[in-house]
Automatic annotation (TrEMBL):
This is Alpha/beta hydrolase. Residues 18-249 form the AB hydrolase-1 domain. Belongs to the AB hydrolase superfamily. It holds the Pfam family Abhydrolase_1. Keywords: Hydrolase. One of its GO terms (molecular function) is hydrolase activity. PANTHER family: ESTERASE-RELATED. InterPro entries: AB_hydrolase_1 (IPR000073), AB_hydrolase_fold (IPR029058).
Length: 264
């Protein structure tokens, strides 16, 4: 199958350097639109949808392949290969950031920098690792998805956007969740929220920037600081933006910080 069609890959913009955007759970490439508009004159932009999201080819969804985040990382690397990319600057959000990390570990030659927005290597607390959720919290959330996916979509959209989210942003996130095939979304949620990739962080050799939002209930500050301590060549950046989706709720600040990372 043509990987560019399978993952609904879009390439546009100008410039010798490439920005490759990897979206998070329940989203698609459209969530980057307020960010990419600022880079089209100086960079080649590559957008894609993870299989099961957006306008990806749903027939390509293989539950066995996508039973871990490595299946998604395999797709990301296949896109790099198909487009003959090099020195890529990957900008990943949430689980899309972790997929980027796994990709850079497997084939670091493709990547120059990783700019990670709200990443988390593990969403449930273990011993001295604080994540904001217990394992029971995660299971309760997954059970809610199973019993009432539509209601879960609205509740989770409000939750991830933080305190006093804009109604239009809540509606967009809710619609995004509802536009994802429910069975695929449920399986992706299990893979995403039950994964533990903490041991992979020490293997990252690519220069990494960790963009941490304020009051992010999905990936709290302790998670971002944990990652910056383990990843050898990393920079921790605290944003004023609140919630988990600054690419949607605070695009100006997010763009400004990304620009500083690119210039570093």
């Amino acid at each position: 199958m043509d990987v560019l069609k399978r993952n609904n890959v879009k390439v546009f913009g100008q410039g010798d350097k490439t920005l490759l955007f990897s979206h998070g759970f329940g989203c698609d490439q459209n969530m980057w639109r307020l960010i990419t508009a600022n880079f089209v004159t100086d960079y080649q932009i590559v957008l894609f949808d993870h299989v099961g999201a957006g306008n990806s080819d749903l027939s390509a969804y293989d539950k066995q392949k996508y039973n871990s985040l490595n299946g998604y990382a395999e797709d990301l690397l296949a896109i790099c290969q198909a487009l003959n990319l090099s020195n890529v600057i990957l900008i990943g959000h949430s689980v899309g950031a972790m997929i980027g990390i796994l990709s850079a570990i497997r084939q670091p030659e493709y990547f120059q920098k990783l700019i990670l927005v709200g990443p988390s290597p593990c969403y449930f607390q273990q011993e001295e690792y604080y994540s904001g959720f217990t394992y029971t919290d995660i299971q309760d959330m997954l059970n809610h998805m199973e019993t009432d996916y539509v209601n879960w979509s609205l509740t989770f959209a409000q939750f991830i956007l933080g305190n006093k989210p804009h109604p239009a942003h809540v509606q967009e996130m809710t619609d995004s969740f509802c536009n994802t095939h429910p069975e695929i979304a449920k399986h992706f949620a299990q893979v995403c929220f039950l994964s533990d990739n903490r041991s992979d962080l020490a293997l990252v050799k690519t220069k990494t920037y960790i963009l941490q939002c304020s009051d992010d209930m999905i990936a709290p500050e302790e998670v971002g600081r944990f990652m910056s301590q383990v990843i050898e060549e990393s920079v921790f950046i605290k944003l004023q933006a609140t919630g988990h989706c600054p690419n949607l709720s605070s695009p100006l600040e997010t763009t400004s910080v990304i620009e500083s990372c690119l210039a570093d």
